[in-house]
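ok so for the tutorial part 2 we go from a plain amino acid sequence to predicted structure tokens. step 1 is just haveing the sequence, like this:
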Amino acid sequence: MALGGLESGIITKDTSYYCSGSEVIYGNRFNCWFGAGHGRMNLADGIKNSCNVYFYNLGRRMGIEAIARTARRLGLGSQTGIDLPGEKEGLVPDPEWKKSTSKTSWFPGETISVAIGQGPLLVTPVQTARLTACVANRGALVTPHLSGSEEAAGRTETGIPRASFESVIEGMWRSVNDEGTGRGAIVPGFDVCGKTGSTQWISRERAEKLARQGKDVKKTHSWFSGFAPRSDPRIVVTILVEFGGMGGAAAAPLAGELFKLYREKYDR
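step 2 — the prediction. this is what the tokens look like for a chain of 268 residues:
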């Protein structure tokens, strides 16, 4: 989202939106995960705090077609080419996909959900790791392999300006090192950069209804993906904890342990 918005000129790194905890868009209220609201957020702050409202507003301005184009340039919606059988392609939705699968039109409100990684969007952990490596590389997509050198992996340039990646990386660094949602992954002196995520498996409304009925409601899936160090990246760590809760609760601390182990072994 951030890379697409920056490259198209829809936003700059200084573009800000105000988060009051929710936003009414197209007549529907969309909530931020932080009900009290984050206040005014620029891009780095929006990434640092995983502010839904920032990316709701960006999604409304970008539109689903631009979102889908950028996502596919960054390797989503297709196999990564990893040497494992049965790799899933994931799904990057757009109006053409919806028309072909359900014979119905795309609704603008669906774009708002996709803008924060929800809705019909589907990604795999290896796609997310590859996307994270692309950010760390400042624009080069690599083909992941279980073994072999990086030179043999193959690299594809996305063509997105390096400055756009630097703006995103600033937010990812703050997420871990400046009391953001990814602070559980911090390793002092290693400049970890990362982003948390929380994947709903049912809608908020459905979860609230089940809770009122006294039924146990499983937590969201917990995500973290990041790289280190910032200026000379050597490792990507992507964590998915099913039903682990918020991204900062389960996935980020696990990632921090892996970054720490890597540094102790290879970065003395």
